[in-house]
Design a protein that fits this description.
- This protein has 594 residues and is of the alpha+beta class.
- The chain has 3 domains: 242 residues, Bira Bifunctional Protein, Domain 2 (BirA Bifunctional Protein, domain 2, 2-Layer Sandwich), CATH 3.30.930.10; 113 residues; 142 residues, Threonyl-tRNA Synthetase, Chain A, domain 2 (2-Layer Sandwich).
- The protein is 40% helix and 21% strand.
- The chain is built from 17 helices and 18 strands.
- The strands form 4 sheets. Strands 1, 2, 3, 4, 5, 6, 7, 8 and 9 form a 9-stranded mixed β-sheet that branches. A 4-stranded antiparallel β-sheet has the order 12-13-18-17, covered by helices on one side. A 3-stranded antiparallel β-sheet has the order 14-15-16.
- The longest helix has 35 residues.
- The N and C termini lie far apart (56 Å).
Length: 594
């Protein structure tokens, strides 16, 4: 079964089971997330999982493009990807464990659908702890579906628990579905959940039945939700008997081009194969991020920094296998051809290729600087009587100039030196720990929380958006936002810095709207009706048939998912802290409510 067939089968199955198909969200979140990217299908639905009514009803399904970089160092093995797609179905206060598990089992094993061999499927459930009980109910439902008891495993919270989107909120146990690839066990302890590759996780059902309170207690929710996610590429690989996601049709054409240009053969040499996988994954990811509805170019800021890291890492590995050509232009047409459901890639091809080419040229310039630095280092090492380049210096060449360790080792050998690999790895590990600590904050899922302050700041972005349009012109459009309980950050299209007078004028208009104490009114209507009524509606091709429109008095009208306050008078005083550049043609405002 090809990837597009699997996508269609999943949607068709859940449509037959009364689920409304909704469109996926942009990769770069549009509705006040605290994440840099959409990292799971549930992130755009967090407001609805927290109680908001969804315009399309209580049963939903879709596919969602995602980016995760928390385990970027694992990319290159058989399963990990930074860009991937998720298939998902949701129950918003409708069915719960019984129907969710039975539908998952039927879709996986029925001859009418995926027809997977039940003997190769394993299922994990939550083993329970001091906070919440053992999930015997889910295990019992799997048994009723005909699953053998020895194919059901109880695992701890770190394996089978989905935490809240923020520090508090809905959460609960999950059940995960694994496929046995029939590879040999890596040890006597090897079982589903082991990262060796024998057991591939293809789907999970999350049961949001608890609310985590500020004092870290878990209370039963009155309204329980189901949130599921099936990895599209992993499941396609399993269905076709592939040992790797890179054997699916999304990757093979790209790998063939890389083989032709490099003269290397995929699947022969372990390191060269890993390099080829990293190149294809990272370039696809960068292509999708730049080509997103809210796409960004490589930069040193937020999403742009991630794109820069991906492109430069792909280039380092391409150089290792002898490729000197620009990767962006080389792979562009194939990436577009192999992803027909994402029409935006074709529309933005010129923009994407230009951004990638610029970044590749910058990186080559950076490498040239690194070579100059390397030439300067060698005499100093010789004077010191060392026979190795210190690990901290090798890491500096890697981190500052993009030199992979292998390149430094090769250059050092030519000069009669070795490299302190252990010292490099120590410096690299320290760098990873610092990066991971930062990523855990940035990539925490969904809205920061459902607190009143977050609602106030979210509502304030509507006022700010309209005030900017009044002061600067109708060309202003939201390009992204990020809200924490402390402040809001709002990106918008505008070609030049705002003047001090313009900033004060915007601030004044927002505060006047707050003082008017306008009602914030929610209505459900079609996108066409929303447009006819003058609502600001970005990404109209991504909305469902019905949308939520929030009107704030006669001041603003905008399509949005929520959450919001009931009256603007609740907001307090609005103050702009900073107006600055975000990227080319995009400005950024940071503001607070006092």
């Amino acid at each position: 079964m090809r990837i597009e067939e699997l996508r269609n089968s999943f949607i068709e199955y859940f449509r037959q089971n009364s689920h409304a198909q909704i469109t996926g969200a942009p990769l770069i979140p549009e509705n006040d997330p605290t994440v840099l990217f959409t990292t799971a299908g549930m992130h755009p639905l967090v407001p609805y999982l927290m109680g908001e009514k969804h315009p399309s009803g209580k049963r939903l399904c879709n596919w969602q493009k995602c980016v995760r970089t928390g385990d970027i160092d694992e990319v290159g093995d058989s399963q990990h990807l930074t860009f991937f797609e998720m298939l998902g179905n949701w129950s918003l206060g409708d069915y719960f464990k019984e129907e969710a598990v039975r539908m998952s089992h039927e879709f996986l094993t029925s001859k009418n659908w995926l027809s997977l061999d039940g003997e190769k499927l394993f299922f994990t459930v939550f083993e329970g702890d001091a906070d919440c009980p053992r999930d015997e109910e889910t295990a019992g439902i799997w048994k009723e579906c005909g699953v053998r008891e020895d194919h059901i495993l109880f695992l701890p919270k770190k394996d089978n628990w989905w935490g809240p989107a923020g520090k508090t909120g809905p959460c609960g146990p999950d059940t995960e579905m694994f496929y046995d690839t029939l590879l040999p066990k890596c040890s006597t302890h090897c079982s589903p959940g082991c990262p060796c590759g024998k057991y591939v996780e293809i789907w999970n059902d999350v049961f949001m039945q608890f609310n985590k309170t500020p004092d870290k207690k878990f209370e039963l929710l009155k309204v329980k939700n189901v949130d599921t996610g099936m990895g599209l590429e992993r499941t396609a690989a399993v269905l076709n008997g592939y040992s790797s996601v890179y054997e699916t049709e999304k990757y093979v054409p790209l790998l063939r081009v890389i083989e032709d240009i490099s003269g290397k053969k995929y699947g022969i040499n372990t390191e060269e194969t890993r390099a080829m996988r990293i190149i294809t994954d990272h370039m696809r990811s960068a292509f999708f991020i730049i080509g997103d509805e809210l796409g960004v170019k490589p930069s040193n800021l937020d999403q742009g920094y991630i794109v820069r890291r991906l492109v430069r890492r792909a280039m380092r590995y391409s150089m290792m296998i002898g490729i000197e050509k620009g990767l962006g232009e080389m792979l562009a047409d194939l990436i577009i051809e192999t992803n027909p459901v994402y029409e935006e890639l074709g529309r933005k091809k010129e923009f994407i290729v230009e951004a990638l080419t610029e970044e590749e040229q910058r990186f080559r310039h950076c490498l040239n600087k690194g070579m100059t630095e390397f030439s300067r280092i060698i005499p100093n090492i010789q004077k010191g009587g060392n026979d190795k380049i210190p690990g901290r210096i090798a890491f500096r060449l890697y981190d500052t100039y993009g030199f992979p360790l292998e390149m430094t080792e090769e250059l050092a050998r030519e000069k009669g030196f070795g490299v302190d690999v252990e010292g490099f790895e120590k410096a690299y590990k320290k760098h990873q720990e610092i990066s991971r600590a930062g990523s855990e904050v940035r990539f925490k899922g969904g809205l920061a929380d459902a607190s009143e302050q977050t609602k106030k700041l979210h509502t304030a972005t509507h006022l700010l958006h309209e005030a900017l349009r009044k002061v600067l012109g109708k060309h202003v459009a939201q390009k992204g936002s990020n809200i924490t309980p402390e402040r809001l950050r709002f990106d918008f299209s505008h070609p030049k810095p705002m003047t001090e007078e313009e900033v004060k004028k915007v601030e004044k208009i927002v505060n006047e709207a707050i003082e008017e104490n306008f009602d914030v009114v929610e209505e459900m209507m079609s996108v066409e009706e929303a447009k006819e009524k003058g609502a600001v509606a970005l990404f109209t091709d991504k909305y469902s048939e019905k949308v939520k429109v929030y009107s704030i008095g006669g001041f603003s009208k905008e399509v949005c998912g929520g959450p919001h306050v009931e009256k603007t008078g609740e907001l307090g005083k609005f103050k702009i802290l900073k107006e600055q550049s975000s990227s080319s043609g995009v400005r950024r405002i940071k503001a607070v409510l006092e």
